[in-house]
Automatic annotation (TrEMBL):
Protein's name according to its UniProt entry: NUDIX domain-containing protein
InterPro entries membership: NUDIX_hydrolase-like_dom_sf, NUDIX_hydrolase_dom
Transmembrane regions listed in the UniProt entry: none
Domain (Nudix hydrolase) ranges: 1-132
Organism: Gracilinema caldarium
Length: 135
């Protein structure tokens, strides 16, 4: 099914916002399912970023930076399935972050740290597309 992911750029330096996902045990972009109250995929991505990291997003929403299809491991009531993540780019209003119960940590990952955070190629490509297009 379709999910919404936020690629949030740091307000002052070349970096992207990541969450260390508790269940998947890896660094990812914040995101999740589109809810009935969301007015758009961009709105869902913005909401998920705020819920997971406390980040304040500067308006307006940026462009779609990519679509990533990946498998989600089975859990109690849900079998293995695919997520079709629509990645929407944003710029943060400031660098302040919090951490929700869904994650071990949140972090700003600089371009020179992509390998250390083991970022998949899909995130690297989306970041490259978003740079220079988000105000």
């Amino acid at each position: 099914h379709v999910t919404a992911t936020a690629l949030v750029l740091h307000p002052e330096r070349p970096a992207v916002l990541l969450v260390h996902h508790r269940r998947l045990e890896r660094w990812l972009l914040p995101g999740g399912h589109v809810e009935p109250e969301d007015d758009s995929i961009g709105g869902a991505a913005r909401r998920e970023a705020r819920e997971e990291t406390g980040v304040r997003i500067a308006a307006p929403d940026g462009p779609v930076a990519g679509v990533d299809v990946h498998g989600i491991p089975p859990k109690k009531k849900e079998p293995f399935h695919l997520h079709h993540d629509v990645i929407v780019a944003f710029r943060a209003a400031d660098a302040a972050l919090e951490c929700s119960e869904e994650s071990f940590a949140t972090a700003w990952c600089g371009e020179d740290e992509f390998d250390r955070y083991a970022l998949p190629e899909s995130i690297r490509l989306a970041y490259a597309r978003a740079r220079g297009k988000v105000r």
